[in-house]
Design brief:
The chain is of the alpha+beta class. The chain has 17 helices and 21 strands. It has an eight-stranded antiparallel β-sheet, with helices on one face. A seven-stranded antiparallel β-sheet has the order 3-2-1-13-12-11-10, sandwiched between helices. A two-stranded antiparallel sheet has the order 4-6. The radius of gyration is 27 Å and the shape is globular.
Length: 647
């Protein structure tokens, strides 16, 4: 759904530059730019100049953009193609897009309807509404408020989240099959959770007595006149012909209609025009064309119940998250499937809503970055800062450099898995902050490097951008940090394991694997050499047994790594059921390779050191035990050895 992330349009990245060392000091604020009039003509001219170029550069076939203002649709237009091969254009009134996690806003709206009805208490233990049990964590039960603000602490899951073909299993079956463990308290969050949002949808289903899809249809779609919207999967026959194709590349379709196994988290299909109705209803305190889907007091509570993880950064409302720009209050939600990328943003005080969705992944994933470029450009053009930015005292260069050193290194985040092999992502691809040496810091997200300059102690401003980064420091160490864009989704924290925190886990692993590779390759080469030159095998009896088992297990290590590569590839391609048998086989091979290798190396060490072996054999036995010992620790710590098919 909502990927950890996506913010910056690739073709705009070239405009970014590194800040000079002196830029961290006080600067004279420029006068605020004048706002363009937000009219259909001006907006149309601006978007008509921007969108075709953005789509072409990102190599995305099509998009829809909708803007509402003062209770009316101000602008809605399709760009490019709903189907590239046939040349079918995008029509904002009839072409269906998959808004991904924007679907959650409908789930959260349904929750608030049931709060109004007195059937849900936002601060009660949700177990009172369920027919299965969610365990407490550190004595704290899960509440609906935690679910709506992504603070329940659930570990990340990916199994069958998005597949293709047949309809998903019933919602209760998916939720009960595996309850992900909770890994942090509400105060340590947020940590975005599709499972948590789907729990909320299931609770709506149980307390209302209506299937979730039917409930949304009757209580939100129908009152708003959203005739081209549905949560049903696969699509009803009447809507299927209007579904936009989702594209892996500019002209290569994806695998077909994407099936979300947790529908309340992201199974919506809708037109831009239907999304306009939903935006208007929220901008008008729950009312659209005489229909009231929320009472004004409830809508206000949903839009203003703010919880923040950092004092200066964006936080979470009840379902929405903050996306303020230039001092204007904005609440929003984004969403992603494999091939569709969307954003919905409400400028509350300005009575304006913006929705954009694209139907392709694009070149190097650039498709999912278009929406942020549109939002930033829209905000800067029509809602610039109301007054010049207040001058700041800045941070002395020596202080900025010292703080940059504290930030540098690899980090984990609260949207992670600590209980399945998905933890490998944190090992292989941690988010690493770089000390640029000039008082600035930078990191890369989705391949786009972002640079930040410190404007006050432990608060950084993105260079040539709107984003800010803030860190919390205790006892001279950074304990957590995030950015405006990321803070409602996840928080960066020190890695779980000490070696990973020190940035040593991967270098040591690579060294161990290099030794094991040399060990594996030396076996056949030594045999070939003996055959060519007529040498004899140097070991006999148990020594020969230990020698061979160490080398067999060294080969198995690389078989296991190849299998894990295939498993992760299948998971990334949402292959669904195809993962299960391969995962089981991979876990068994990993046990034999890492566990068996450690035992074989220990046995070989004992035989070598109690026998009459030379110093080279003894050194080899020590290094082999160290290499297998470290890889076994990695395999256990990152759940490469296990007997569970859940992830």
């Amino acid at each position: 759904m909502m990927t950890a992330t996506r913010r910056w349009l690739g073709w705009a990245v070239a405009a970014l530059g590194l800040i000079m060392a002196g830029a961290a000091t006080a600067q004279t604020p420029a006068a605020p730019p004048s706002a363009h009039p937000l009219t259909a003509d001006d907006l149309g001219a601006w978007l008509d100049g921007l969108m075709p170029t953005a789509l072409k550069t990102a190599e995305v076939p099509g998009a829809v953009v909708v803007v509402v203002k003062d209770g009316q649709v101000l602008f809605e237009k399709g760009y490019g193609f709903a189907d590239y091969k046939s040349g079918k254009p995008v029509d904002p009134k009839t072409t269906l897009f998959r808004p991904g996690s924007v679907s959650k806003l409908f789930t959260w709206t349904a929750v608030m309807q049931q709060v109004e009805a007195g059937k849900i208490d936002l601060d009660a233990d949700i177990n009172r509404y369920l027919d299965f049990h969610i365990p407490a964590y550190h004595g704290l039960p899960v509440t609906m408020r935690m679910l709506m603000q992504h603070r329940a602490g659930f570990s990340e899951t990916a199994r069958d989240l998005l597949t293709y073909g047949k309809a998903p299993p019933p919602l209760d079956v998916v939720l009960k099959r595996y309850v992900p463990p909770r890994i942090f308290t509400p105060d340590e969050g947020p940590g975005y959770s599709n499972y948590g949002a789907s729990l909320a949808g299931y609770i709506v289903q149980r307390v209302s007595g209506e299937p979730f899809d039917d409930y949304i249809q009757r209580h939100i779609f129908a009152p708003l006149g959203m005739a081209h919207a549905t949560f049903v999967q696969p699509l009803p026959a009447a809507l299927a012909p209007d579904m936009s194709t989702g594209y892996a590349t500019a002209d290569q379709p994806g695998k077909g209609f994407e099936i979300i196994s947790l529908p309340p988290a992201g199974s919506l299909s809708a037109t831009g025009d239907d999304m306009a109705r939903f935006m208007i209803a929220h901008l008008q305190d729950g009312q659209y064309a005489g229909a009231q889907i929320l009472q004004p007091k409830t809508a206000e509570e949903m839009h203003t119940s703010l919880t923040k993880a950092f004092p200066d950064l964006a936080g979470n409302e009840l379902g929405f998250y903050q996306q303020d720009i230039n001092g204007h209050r904005v609440i929003a939600h984004g969403g992603d499937t494999d091939f569709f990328h969307s954003d919905l943003s409400l400028f509350l005080d300005d009575h304006v809503g913006l929705f954009i969705s694209v139907n392709g992944r694009g070149k190097d994933g650039m498709g999912e970055l278009i929406r942020q470029s549109v939002f930033d450009g829209f905000g800067d053009r029509y809602f610039p800062a109301l007054a010049p930015a207040a001058p700041t005292a800045g941070v002395p260069l020596d202080v900025a450099k010292a703080h940059a050193k504290l930030m540098a290194g690899p980090w984990s985040n609260t949207r992670r898995s600590d209980s399945s092999f998905l933890a490998l992502i944190e090992l292989i691809q941690p988010l690493t902050v770089t000390d640029d040496g000039d008082g600035t810091i930078s990191f890369s997200l989705l391949g786009a490097k972002q640079t930040y300059a410190e404007v006050k102690p432990f608060l950084w401003q993105e260079v040539h951008g709107h984003d800010r980064l803030e860190a919390i420091v205790k006892d001279g160490k950074v304990t957590r940090w995030s950015t405006d864009f990321l803070a409602p989704i996840f928080v960066m924290v020190p890695a779980t394991h000490a070696l990973a925190r020190a940035g040593l886990a991967m270098p040591l692993l690579l060294a161990a694997l290099a030794f094991l590779l040399a060990t594996a390759l030396s076996w056949p080469w030594a045999a070939i050499a003996r055959r060519i030159y007529g040498g004899s095998f140097p070991h006999a009896g148990w020594r020969a047994w230990g020698y061979r088992k160490v080398r067999i297990c060294a080969w198995l290590v690389f078989v296991a790594l190849g299998l894990w590569t295939a498993v992760i590839q299948l998971v990334s391609e949402t292959a669904g059921a195809a993962v299960a048998p391969l995962l089981t086989a991979t876990q068994v091979v990993s046990l034999l390779a890492f566990g068996g290798g450690f035992l074989a190396a220990a046995w070989n060490l004992w035989l070598t050191w109690t026998g009459k072996a030379g110093w080279t054999a003894r050194a080899f036995s020590v290094l082999a035990l160290a290499a297998f010992g470290f890889t076994l620790w990695i395999a256990l710590a990152y759940h490469m050895i296990g007997f569970s098919g859940e992830y």
